Amino acid sequence: MREFNLSAWVLEHRAFTGFIMALLLFGGIFAYFRLGQREDPEFTFRVMVVKTLYPGATAQEVEQQLTDRLEKKIQELPSLNILRSYSKPGESVIFVTPREDTPPKEIPDLWYQVRKKVDDIRLTLPPGSIGPFFNDEFGDTYSLIYAFSGQGLSYAELKKAADSARQQLLRVKDVEKIDLIGTQDEKIYIEFSDKKLAELGLDANAVAEALQAQNSMTSAGTVYTAQRNLPIRLTGQFDSVDSIAKLPVPIQGRTLRVGDFAHVKRGYLDPPELKMRINGKEAVGLGITMNKRGDVLELGKALEAAKIQIEGELPVGMDVDQIADQPRVVNKAIGEFLSTFFEALAAVLLVSFLSLGFRTGSVVALTVPLVLSGTLLCMLLFGMEIHRISLGALILALGLLVDDAMISIEMMARKLEEGWDRIDAATYAYRATAFPMLTGTLVTIVGFLPVGLAKSQAGEYTVSIFQVMGISLLLSWIGAVVFTPYLGFLLLKVQPHSAHDRDLFDTPFYNRLRHWVEWCVEHRKKVIIATVALFCVGVATLSQVPEQFFPLSNRPEVIIDLWLPEGSSFAQSEATAKRMENILSKDEDVVNYTAYIGGGTPRFFLLIVQQLANTNLSEFVVMTKDNAARERVMQRIRSAFSTDFPAVRGRVMRLNVGPPMDYPLVFRVLGEDPEIVRNIADRVAEVMRANPDTVDVNDDWHDRIPSLRLVLDQDKARALGVSTSSLSKTLQAHYTGIPAGQFREDDKLIDIVWRAQNDLRTAADRLPDVTVRTGNGRTAPLSQFVKFETVFEDGVRWHRNRFPAISVRADVIDGKMAPDVAAEIIPKLKPIQDQLPIGYFLETGGSKEDAGISQKSILVWIPLVLVVTLILLMMQLQNLSRTFLVFVTAPLGVIGAAFALLLFRAPFGFVALLGIIALSGMIMRNSVILVDQIEQDQKAGLDAWTAIVESTVRRFRPILLTAAAAILAMIPLSRNDFFGPQAIAIMGGLTVATVLTVFFLPALYAAWFRVERIDSSGNGVAQ
């Protein structure tokens, strides 16, 4: 029974094959326009934030009464990895992070478990605590952010316009939600003078209670008659600020109007919460989140059309600026990738045409779009998207997907040169190399398997490399045995003369090549020893290559952080931000800038580290003209830090690619006693500062902050009839203010706040003069029964897995890689680590830790890759000895990869590691085809020596062509910030490995099987 030949079947059904090819081509075009497009692939943010407020408590009290209780319960969670938290005066924030190998589909249930466990102990939290509040949408990214601003316009006017625009934009297709950013809630303040109240004999707390009763919304009942029900409505609620001032308040038998003893005014939250400013103007922002199934480019077009309509309805003088524009970024990124893709395609086609000729090269050129169309169609069917990673993977695949087609058409062309007819020539490749090619293709795909199985954020971020490579390479094999024979049958012609196989390879070049191969076989020991030595040098060289976790983004934005000392006021942060605005406004390289005062920027880029609310923080997002301008702006800002901002811890950063990471260089100190932890952390900081490559060494506990401690004389207080509770309420009413009702205006509820006048609230030296109502109805100053002390307390206290933890952090100078700097510092920390008391720990964090976690998630699958590869090789070669022979060629790529990375100064990181692992599959692919050819030649009657030499000579051209196509396709990608190191590793590794396949593999084969030359008499000649 004749074996089935797929290529022959294709040629027997040419009409059907042509129809399928046309359908596939149009399907690919359709898929390209239907595939979702975004800047970065989606990946699950494995962080939940649990926030609880405890007004009036110190950081230590918050830690003991709130944070520790909550953490103890949350620690019961399954799949929990890290529990980080900080406690500040009046505020507890816990970050819940599950293990990286937790499947994304299980994350929502894990967040539900967090809520459940916290609810179990909610009633045990101390009285006066507010919350907890949960945020499991920490990773939501705004596709676009609009800023509404205008000189002379109030926050109320800006908010009204932004809220109106929000309602209209929510109607746009694929808009999931829209948040207002930087709004300041309106308040009505009733400000009193305690001296005035004392003169009138009024108690501040009693006045506040009277105001609350006056404006409460309480049902007055309903009159039920036989005909209808009549609800009873009472007037008297506030309807204007003036009505509040005129409100008569009955107190202690007297009736006074509010305006007689207090000043009523309408304003905004004081001190403010997060403020947003655009180009020096106060603004209110709209952050738009896209539906996960949406197309960001289509969303951008729809929102632009809606924005034009909205601008026509805005008040005169109001501007709308687009400060985050993901559609534009995605469009630009995809344009750059497509340009790279077409450069790579041109390189591949150039190799095809120059080496194979026009007609033969045309077959390869026509196969490429068919395979790509099939890949795009599969991406659509499997719900994949076009983004940074999938496009880069397509370019990586481009250099490899022509390999099978080149092998197939080169073999067909050679048979036509020998005088075969078109049918036999077109079907010969399937008989001779289809299954070795399939095995080689599968081995190449297996090389990318670790990234497909990696259980980490980095693995989830890059998983589409494996998906796209797997799809495209499998389709390339199908193309080689289906489309290539079909196209070759149509385009190639039978040669007018026939030639013997020996004649085709009996040229000066092939004769020299044959001589070199024979020399390598004869001097096999020298070749093997030289190759092993070269491999050892390559491994040593790789250890000298700078390490990097993930590369920086090529986006032109610059992030500026301005940190004031812990405890600084919002007003001081705002003044500092305005000084930075003044500098940026004069910089010609700056297109626009947005300031966020009191917190960090909203997440406009998936991979940023989002800073939470901090009154001592101002963060800028600066858009520069281009990447060169970005570098100039960064240098000028760093100079300004040293001259114009002496009291500010300033930081200027580019955007990162890959899982978010705050500081690249981090060392953590953990232990039971915070004082001991602090001492150890200070010693670690000294070692880090001694390294010349570190910048801005700091820790996350910051400085201790001053506070006023009031020591109450209990005997005097009891004699005066003053309790701790009444005193606390009086001071809160005086300084912070207490709620005195709500003013209802349309759909708004505006808080009415009862507090002291501004000059009384902001003068710390006047605290002793604050008058307090005593038990006998009189007043007395605080100084009569209170002693005043200024003490220092922690501004923030961090925990990690319930241990007090201080993270000592730093940036590194430009041109240095954080893992390399960490590697220099770690040995110098050893003396500190050796002296640590029991129960205290020193850990490495930052990019060194993240790179280790990500690389471990890749390397853990290497045994599976080895097993699957061995199975595939055994299935093909059916010989254990030949299988291991092919297998030992896998590491050869390290040699060229290491030299290339060092030569081009490309860092060795996560993506470069993927390239080196994938190289092993590419090398074994060539090896298995060559070894299979040797075996076939031996079965055809050639002796082992001749089979080794002649098979290598015949396989040289396709091996060289496929390697050249892959290497040249990598050149455009080598300029890419993300895939550059991977492309360089593959280029260098494949270049050296190709040479070794031609010269080292024959020598290894001869040594492995102890092959001897057969002399003319048929006897073996020992070598």
TrEMBL record:
Pfam families: ACR_tran. The chain crosses the membrane at residues 15-33, 337-356, 363-383, 389-407, 428-453, 465-492, 858-877, 884-904, 910-931, 956-973, 985-1008. One of its GO terms (molecular function) is xenobiotic transmembrane transporter activity. InterPro entries: AcrB_DN_DC_subdom, Acrflvin-R. Keywords: Membrane, Transmembrane, Transmembrane helix. GO terms for cellular component: plasma membrane. The keyword Ribonucleoprotein does not apply. It comes from the Bacteria. This is Multidrug efflux pump. It comes from Methylobacter tundripaludum.
